[in-house]
Design a protein that fits this description.
Number of helices: 8
Low-confidence stretches: 29-46
Shape: globular
Largest sheet: 8 strands, mixed
CATH architecture: Alpha-Beta Barrel
Order of helices and strands: EEEEEHEHHEHEHEHEHH
Strand order of the largest sheet: 2-1-10-9-8-7-6-3
Distance between the termini: 52 Å
Radius of gyration: 18 Å
Length: 205
């Protein structure tokens, strides 16, 4: 059974995934020893993808495909016709710089989907990325969260502008679907409802 939840307006349902996600080949990523442990650093501005990985990433010749940001930037010229045909989307990790995508694809709405990958949920960067894509950069198409995506996050991902959620393979999409209704009326304004509750409701004397 599919683990993809997709919003259609205010209605959410479990649907089949029509997009194939391209992953980068494995690499001997830079490792540093800190406090006796091997830590992989993925800090903003630090290159964590090699040229070899980008060149050898296998992109299916047909169908709808989501490629890593680094591959999209490096191989955009060869993908141009498929981008214009709506067959290519982009995914980025939460540590990657969103402005790199904007620099190479000024009109984001040419892309039918942008996905954000959560390697391990530890902070709120995915919520910031969703909000920026919707509010600052005007992205109107499908915005997907995938990776370490759990049901407790869905309500807040929706508030940040995400419209589809690929639930972690070891969890139930049906359980996650119900979590979208954990709260009836959010207090704060956000992407899905800009006005806070005190502006939406007026008390009568």
């Amino acid at each position: 059974m599919s683990n993809l939840i997709k919003l259609n307006g205010e209605t959410a349902s479990i649907v089949e995934n029509e997009w194939t996600c391209v992953n980068l080949p494995a690499s001997q990523a830079e490792q540093r020893v800190q406090a006796g442990k091997v830590v992989l650093f993925k800090l903003t501005g630090e290159k964590s993808v090699t040229d070899e990985q980008i060149a050898t990433a296998v992109i299916p010749a047909t169908g709808k495909v989501i490629v890593p940001l680094s591959v999209f930037i490096a191989r955009k010229n060869s993908l141009e016709s498929r981008i214009n045909a709506g067959e290519i989307g982009v995914w980025l990790d939460t540590h990657e710089v969103l402005e790199q995508l904007i620099e190479h694809q000024a009109d984001l709405n040419v892309l039918l989907i942008i996905a954000v990958h959560v390697e391990r949920f530890a902070d709120g960067r995915i919520f910031s990325l969703g909000t920026l894509l919707r509010s600052r950069y005007g992205f109107k198409n499908e915005l997907r969260a995938f990776g370490d995506v759990l049901k407790d996050q869905l309500f807040f991902l929706k508030r940040s502008g995400f419209t589809s959620f690929l639930i972690r393979a070891d969890r139930s999409a049906e359980d996650a679907l119900a979590s979208l209704h954990d709260f009836s009326q959010p207090y704060q304004g956000a992407v899905d409802e800009p006005q806070p509750i005190f502006k939406r409701y007026h008390r009568t004397a």
